[in-house]
Amino acid sequence: MSEHFTSFDTVDGDLECGILLLCDHARNTVPEEYGSLGLPESEFERHIAYDIGAEALTRALAARLNAPAVHSCFSRLLIDPNRGEDDPTIVMRLSDGTVIPGNHPIAREKIDRRISNFHAPYHDAIEDMIGQILDTGTNPIIFSIHSFTPAWKGVARPWHATMLWDADPRLSLFMVQELAKEKGIITNDNEPYDGALKNDTMYQHATQRGLAQGLIEVRQDLISDDQGVEEWADRLAPILAKASARPDMHEIRYYGSRTDGTAANGDYS
């Protein structure tokens, strides 16, 4: 690993504010030893390398809420921090039509090295931050910030922002309900992806602890510049603050997971 390359960064905030922000796909950088993974630099400007606008939105929300945050500092093309260590897509060989030469083929020992040097330290940092928050007597909401492409395979995606969730409905359905009140905003839950992903970041750090959680997907074209980031931070911060003011958001509740058949039945309305 390059001497000065770090796999994660943290944003200081009030550990008792009740919210922890995460950003799995914050950056498109790769350590020098991996070069460009055999790709032209233009590929690193695409969504296959990182979630466009997500880090800026995370930092803007952290500032408004005085909330701590943890984000990755390596491209998802190197290794995807939002995948479990046993997930076959943790190192992508093909992404949205692009073959990644530096990942194809790749031996298991090289995947394990990337896990040890990048993936694991990022998740250790999240664990450390959650531990610090829990030590204050606060059960935090875990809110993860992602972004999605305006279209996929020629089909437009109409949503402005959506919430992904597995079995714990508390935060995600609240966010969708609040966003739906915003004039002109098209929202939904578990679009354009399903939030049930075994051993992903939410599963590892929130589901298994019974912490309220949600992953927001904001359309990339809406947060691709400073103005868009500020607009969405202004929109989301009051909703998150309102969510955090609800006692049920800070109760430990074990809903299980749809990915392993342990999800509890219940009224999610």
Shape: globular
User: Class, according to the CATH hierarchy?
Assistant: Alpha Beta
The second-level CATH architecture is: 3-Layer(aba) Sandwich
CATH topology: Aminopeptidase
Strand order of the largest sheet: 1-3-2-6-11-9-10
Q: Provide the CATH superfamily.
A: Zn-dependent exopeptidases
Percent helix among the residues? 25-40%
Number of domains: 1
Query: Mean pLDDT, as a whole number?
Result: 96
Structural class per helix/strand content?
alpha/beta
Distance between the termini: 47 Å
**Biggest beta-sheet profile:** 7 strands, mixed
So how many helices?
5
Estimated radius of gyration: 18 Å
Care to count the β-strands?
A: 11
Residue windows where pLDDT falls under 50 for at least 5 positions: none
Share in β-strands:
15-25%
Order of helices and strands: EEHEEEHEEEEHEHEH
List the keywords.
alpha/beta; Aminopeptidase; globular; 269 residues; 11 strands; two-stranded antiparallel ribbon; 16% strand
Describe this structure in words.
Helix 1 packs across helix 5 and helix 3 (170-180) crosses helix 5 (226-244). The chain has one domain: Zn-dependent exopeptidases (Aminopeptidase). By secondary structure, the chain is α/β, with parallel strands linked by helices. The longest helix has 28 residues, at 108-135. Helix content is 28%, strand content 16%. The strands form three sheets. A seven-stranded mixed sheet has the order 1-3-2-6-11-9-10, with helices on both faces.
